[in-house]
Amino acid sequence: MSTVIPPKGVSAPIPWLDSAPDATQAPPVAAEQGLGPNRRILIFRQESVNALMRTLSARDPYTGHHAHRVTNVAVAFGRSLGLPPQDLETLATAGYLHDIGKVGISDAILLKPGPLTAEERAVVETHPLIGEKIVEPLGLRPQEKNIILLHHERWDGLGYPYNLAGVKIPFLCRLLALADVFDALTSDRPYRRALTVPKALTEIEKQAGKHFDPDLATKFILLIDSYHPLTLSQIPPPPWLSRCL
After folding, report:
1. Apex CA 227: angle with CA 239 and CA 197, to 5°?
2. CA separation for the pair 58, 225 (Å, rounded)
3. Which residues have a Cβ under 8 Å from the Cβ of 239 and sit 6 or more positions away?
4. Residue range 148-196, pLDDT digits in tens
5. Residue-level pLDDT at 24
6. How many angstroms separate the CA atoms of 128 and 98, rounded?
7. Is 18 inside a domain boundary?
8. Is 24 contained in some domain?
9. Which of 14, 49, 76, 175 is the most buried (most CB within 10 A)?
10. What is the Cα–Cα distance from 8 to 6, expressed in whole angstroms?
């Protein structure tokens, strides 16, 4: 991978995806990074996270792969912005679990091979609230729970579940929303083909100031455009995720 000059507002060059080792395996045990003394509890939490994702991935393999890619992109983006290690760990853990609430959505809706009706969409839009309840016993940090709950909020206030707008949406939630939508746009689905990266970035540009924080959207577009010519759907999941599927 050749070194490139980072876009304006990005702190340093990063290799595409490989810049996030903590996102290519299960979210790291914090004690190993000097962030907490109770290793046994943290390992239990990590194993619980993996078990939850295995449950979801067994029903919907796309969601498991999507979680991996979103986590990688979000952590890489966070690193490029110079975020501190604890924020990167938050993105790794919450990125991995952001759609865990979909375990509470029926297969008839979750696996439907076509566009959803308005009623079905309303059911899907409950998954952040379901996810918040599912992870409650894990003792996640407030920032991690916020991402699971608020990653579908929009800059213009038209998101869900609470119609938050602008800077009322926590920063890391706004960041992960870009990675989430970018991966959705660049992934094949039963009812549509993946967009190319340039087309996906064009869609994100159109939604800057509407769906997305305009400043973050600009930095995200410049970063992605600088680092990778392929769709993320062509990148296989890492070995640890393959073992979970």
Report:
1. 85
2. 33
3. none
4. 999 999 999 999 999 999 999 999 999 999 999 999 999 887 778 899 8
5. 34
6. 8
7. no
8. no
9. 175
10. 7
Average pLDDT, the chain: 80
CB 65 within 8 A of CB 194: no
- CATH number of the structural domain spanning residue 48: 1.10.3210.10
The better pLDDT of the pair 38, 123 is held by 123
| Contact residues for 56 (Cβ-Cβ < 8 A; gap 6+) | 63, 64, 99, 100, 102, 103
Nearest CA to 90 among 68, 106, 72, 75?
75
Q: Which domain holds residue 194?
A: 34-244
- Count of CB atoms situated within 10 Å of the CB of 60: 17
Residue with tokens 């305009």: 214
Residues with Cβ < 8 Å from 212, sequence gap 6 or more? Answer: 154, 155, 174, 177, 178, 181, 204, 220
Q: Quote the pLDDT of residue 29.
A: 41
**Widest distance between CA atoms in the chain:** 49
64 HSE (CA, 13 A, CB side): 25
Say if 114 falls within a structural domain: yes
What's the total number of domains in the chain?
A: 1
For residue 42, the one-letter residue type is L
Measure the CA angle with vertex 49, ends 58 and 238; round to 5°. Answer: 65
For residue 161, whether the previous peptide bond is cis, meaning omega lies within 30 degrees of 0, is yes
Length of the chain: 245
| Structural domain includes residue 20 | no
